[in-house]
From TrEMBL:
Pfam families: PMP22_Claudin. Keywords: Cell junction, Cell membrane, Membrane, Tight junction, Transmembrane, Transmembrane helix. This is Claudin. It comes from Apteryx owenii (Little spotted kiwi). It is a multi-pass membrane protein. One of its GO terms (cellular component) is bicellular tight junction. Belongs to the claudin family.
Length: 217
């Protein structure tokens, strides 16, 4: 049972982590971190991301303009760029390390302790990657809520709202954390080595042969 249970958990963990890493990269480049609906012109929707601001028209057209200066951005967007790059880099490193630590990979079968360490280190990297993906998304969401309910801003001024990229980023962070947890749980599970299974089969065959000889006499 353990021979099937461990690889299945490892495969589930690596697939969840891969999904979280892809979603994290997608969140980094999506321009829909914030949405702005103009009541005066309902045919246009303004969006803002980490790299550019876009105008989406009802006809289906989309025009984007990159931000001119990194220092001119709000603090939450500047820090979010750095943290999202950090999250993507750690996620990629975690995929490489944990991939070499999988039981289904025949490389390094005799170095089980090294493969365990790779899985452990890869799982921890996924945790950190997930946290560093959730922090900037939550920070931008918090600042958006504060600006939305700011009473000092006149009601005539349009308010920014949550964009789709925030929800993608939250999902990415939770997938990375859950995937890393599954990988680390397999380290604590019972492991059955092929050598011990072979020894048990040989011992069972010897017992059967011994019983056959006794029945003959």
């Amino acid at each position: 049972m353990a021979l099937v249970y461990r690889p299945m958990m490892q495969l589930s963990g690596i697939l969840l982590s891969l999904l979280g890493w892809v979603l994290s990269c997608l969140t980094t480049y999506l321009p829909q971190w914030k949405n702005l609906n103009l009541e005066l012109n309902e045919l246009e929707i303004w969006t803002m991301g980490l790299w550019q601001a876009c105008v989406v028209q009802e006809e289906g057209g989309m025009q984007c303009k990159d931000f001119d200066s990194f220092l001119a951005l709000p603090p939450e967007l500047r820090i979010s760029r750095i943290l999202m790059f950090f999250s993507n880099g750690l996620g990629l490193l975690g995929l490489l390390l944990s991939g070499f630590g999988l039981d289904c990979l025949k490389i390094g079968e005799r170095q089980q302790e090294l493969k365990k360490r790779l899985l452990l280190f890869g799982g921890m990297l996924f945790w950190i990657s997930g946290i560093t993906a959730i922090v900037p998304v939550s920070w931008v969401a918090h600042s958006t809520v504060q600006e939305f309910w700011d009473e000092s801003i006149p009601d005539i001024v349009p308010r920014w709202d949550f964009g789709e990229a925030l929800f993608v980023g939250w999902l990415a962070g939770f997938c990375l954390i859950l995937g890393g947890a599954l990988l680390n749980c397999t380290i604590c599970s019972t492991e059955v080595h092929p050598s011990s299974v072979h020894y048990a089969v040989v011992e069972l065959q010897d017992q059967c042969q011994h019983l056959e000889t006794e029945t003959r006499f």
